[in-house]
Design brief:
It is built from five helices and two strands. It has a two-stranded antiparallel ribbon. It is mostly helical and 124 residues long. It has helices spanning 44-55, 60-67, 71-84, 93-108, 114-122; strands spanning 18-22, 29-34.
Length: 124
């Protein structure tokens, strides 16, 4: 069974550095100073969220359906993962239009009240 390597020291909270690699087939080893991937620092929940996002080809509405969470929750989780990865989130006009459409769809479907819709539209 393989385990995910920890990213933080449980004693001081410092970051780990990979210093050895071992071949699974012949068990030869290579030592040195290696960096992990950008995604290695993500927890299991964040990694699963990103995999779902990719599976849904970036469609927030599809992620919403797949995970059974609201549109604002998907956006919030995506922003949090981007922040953890050190990426700056930018909002395009297409994103804003999609968010408006989703809010109006939720209002039309009775999922939110007019007051909630107005507040969400104001916060875009």
């Amino acid at each position: 069974m393989t385990h995910k390597a920890p990213t933080r020291c449980p004693v001081c909270g410092g970051g780990y550095e990979i210093t050895a690699l071992t071949c699974k087939k012949c068990e030869s080893a290579l030592g040195g100073h290696f960096s992990g991937c950008d995604f290695c620092s993500l927890g299991n929940d964040d990694a699963a969220f990103i995999l779902t996002f990719l599976k849904c080809r970036g469609s927030i509405k599809d992620v919403e359906k797949e995970l059974g969470i609201s549109y604002p929750t998907v956006r919030s989780r995506l922003d949090a993962v981007l922040k953890r990865l050190g990426l700056k989130s930018t909002v395009s006009m297409l994103d804003i239009k999609e968010e408006r459409r989703n809010i109006l769809d939720q209002l039309d479907g009775g999922e939110i009240t007019a007051e909630q819709a107005a507040e969400q539209l104001k916060n875009l």
